[in-house]
Amino acid sequence: MAAAAGLWPRLLVAPVRRSHGRRMAPRCAAVQGERKTTVRSKEGDELEVCRVVNGMWQVSGSSWGNYEPAAAVDAMLRYADGGLSTFDMADICKERPISFSSPLLSRHVVDQATSQEN
């Protein structure tokens, strides 16, 4: 886990301002120093995450309505492109696995983190 944690930048939620002064949605931005959000498991593993977590209830099953897999992947990628790179998918794995999106989303987020470091 320690090696994988090195792939992720330290993250902070920072509001972004448009040129005309209106606030935009918070973004996770890489920062330096000790300001970070770290999740620790009972086994002692650590993972740095964005402080804004996107719930995936929209694709959790028929109780929330139907969805198109391609549209769900597109929505997740828009969040990731916007800097919101942490997704809560725990409950949806029970009813409807999202194997159609997980590898694509994971690869995209890792690519984004790598490009920010370079």
Describe what is shown at a glance.
The chain is α+β, with helices and mostly antiparallel strands and 118 residues long. Helix content is 31%, strand content 23%. It comes from Oryza meyeriana var. granulata.
Characterization of the model:
By secondary structure, the protein is α+β, with helices and mostly antiparallel strands. The chain has one domain. It is built from four helices and six strands; from the N terminus they run H-E-E-E-E-E-H-E-H-H. It has helices spanning 2-5, 69-81, 92-95, 102-117, and strands spanning 11-17, 23-30, 38-40, 46-48, 53-55, 86-88. The strands form three sheets. Strands 1-2 form a two-stranded antiparallel ribbon. Helix 2 (69-81) packs parallel to helix 4. The longest helix has 16 residues, at 102-117. It starts with a helix and ends with a helix. The model is unreliable at 1-20, 30-35 and 97-101 (pLDDT under 50).
Helices and strands, with pairings:
Layout: H1 2-5, E1 11-17, E2 23-30, E3 38-40, E4 46-48, E5 53-55, H2 69-81, E6 86-88, H3 92-95, H4 102-117
Parallel strand pairs: 5-6
Antiparallel strand pairs: 1-2, 3-4
Helix pairs in contact: 2-4
